[in-house]
Design goal:
7 strands, 5-stranded mixed beta sheet, 415 residues, two-stranded antiparallel ribbon, alpha/beta
């Protein structure tokens, strides 16, 4: 029986159709080239073809999605290639360089990268079901928060165009008390008979706790500049305000529901307690959930703390040319993971003596706030990496930097 030839493949994916190229592992001879629809029948045929042709690894320009999951399900090694890496490789195979682009040629370039340079790329390891659930929930909340911020900005712009007093009445335009006020008084006409007594009753009924009296708030409305919108424009803007208020109410409700689900999913995750131990309050679940979702459960994904720091954007990029050696800001990284580490650093510098010391010394060396936060984030990476690898929650007694600071400053054991 003839032995099956080993081969590598490249897939140039698209929304509707995927281009496939398969090359021999030994000589690089192209043995197959074709296209497959992004439908169940097409994906099934694609995966079956790869298995029948003895494909050991596949290079593709994305690290997740239905197609990637199907490839991993077949037991094929999947290499996620960054689009910039593919662009830089095109001149290796065609004299016209990166300008010469087609789906079939990109599939061939990816197949060659999988064949000749596979040792330079990290093979994808599928996340656990618990990690995928956390990733979906945290990203959905992040997207809804972005929509809420945009809607709040739009609401403020509408109010400033014809009723500036309502825009500056409360500290947050999308707070529950502000939305309740705008729902009751969406235009100056609706608030024409609003007096101190009526406003005081409204604030009491809604449980206002902002510390401002009805007289002070009413003064803000009266001191604000009055718009000159006509009757038709005022009515139109009134409807726009009501629409945005309704949208923000729904968004706030769904965001709160997602936050509750994130807390449940985090505590059900095998690594949840490890990351929750970094925070003083047991209710601080959002940043911990983001860390778990982006780092994942696979310990082989980040073999060293340097690899984790680079992925999180907490370490600089070394730039060296001749006698010039500088450290540059790392732009290519996991932006969500960077934000999670930055939030952790910003939070802990307020109450953790070691974190405050690292931040203060960085500022003392002339670093700006953002740079000092990254320096503190890099220090937290070392701690979190050790916790994650050992599967142990944060313990100040095992934190060497904190112990040295505590012994040097004579801090009590409880600090």
């Amino acid at each position: 029986m003839q032995e099956r030839t080993k081969s590598s493949a490249g897939i140039d994916w698209a929304k509707d159709e995927h281009a496939l190229c398969v090359v021999e592992e030994a000589g690089g001879r192209k043995i197959f080239e074709g296209r497959f629809d992004h439908r169940e029948r097409g994906l099934t045929k694609l995966c079956r073809s790869l298995v029948e042709m003895g494909v050991e690894r596949v290079a593709i320009e994305r690290p997740e999605g239905v197609l990637v999951e199907r490839l991993l399900e077949c037991g094929i090694v999947v290499l996620a290639i960054h689009p910039n890496q593919l662009k830089a490789s095109r001149p290796r195979f065609r004299a016209s360089g990166s300008r010469s682009k087609s789906d079939s040629f990109d599939a061939f370039c990816l197949a060659e990268l999988a064949r000749t340079d596979h040792h330079r790329f990290r093979a994808l390891v599928p996340d656990s079901d618990e990690t995928k659930a956390l990733k979906v929930l945290t990203r959905a909340r992040e997207d809804l928060v972005a929509i809420r911020v945009a809607s709040a900005n739009r609401l403020r712009a509408e109010l400033e165009a014809f009723w500036a007093g309502a825009a500056s009445l409360f500290s947050e335009i999308d707070s529950s008390i502000s939305l309740a006020f705008l729902e009751r008084y969406p235009s100056p006409k609706d608030a024409a008979r609003l007096g101190e007594k009526r406003l005081s009753g409204f604030l009491t009924k809604k449980g206002y706790s902002g510390g401002r009296s009805a007289r002070e708030l009413l003064g803000r409305i009266r001191k604000a500049p009055k718009g000159r919108a006509g009757k038709a424009e005022t009515e139109a803007r009134r409807e726009a305000v009501l629409g945005l208020v309704g949208t923000l109410r729904v968004l706030a409700e769904r965001i709160k529901h997602l936050e509750d689900e994130i807390a449940k999913a985090l505590r059900a995750h095998p690594d949840g307690e490890i990351f929750l131990s970094l925070f003083r309050s047991p209710n601080s679940t959002l940043t911990a959930a983001s860390l778990v979702a982006q780092i994942g459960h696979c310990r082989e994904r980040y073999p060293t703390n340097e690899a984790l720091a680079a992925a999180a954007g907490m370490s600089p990029v070394a730039v060296e040319s001749g006698k010039r050696k500088v450290a540059s800001f790392r732009r290519a990284c996991d932006k969500r993971l960077r934000r999670a580490f930055a939030t952790l650093s910003e939070s802990t510098r307020q109450h953790h003596p070691w974190a405050e010391d690292v931040y203060r010394r960085a500022r003392g060396r002339g670093c700006d706030h953002a740079h000092a936060i990254r320096i503190l984030g890099r220090a937290w990476v070392r701690v979190i990496f050790r916790m994650w690898q050992d599967g142990l929650p944060y313990d100040p007694e095992r934190h060497g930097g904190f112990e040295r600071l505590r012994s040097g400053e004579g801090l009590p054991q409880g600090v």
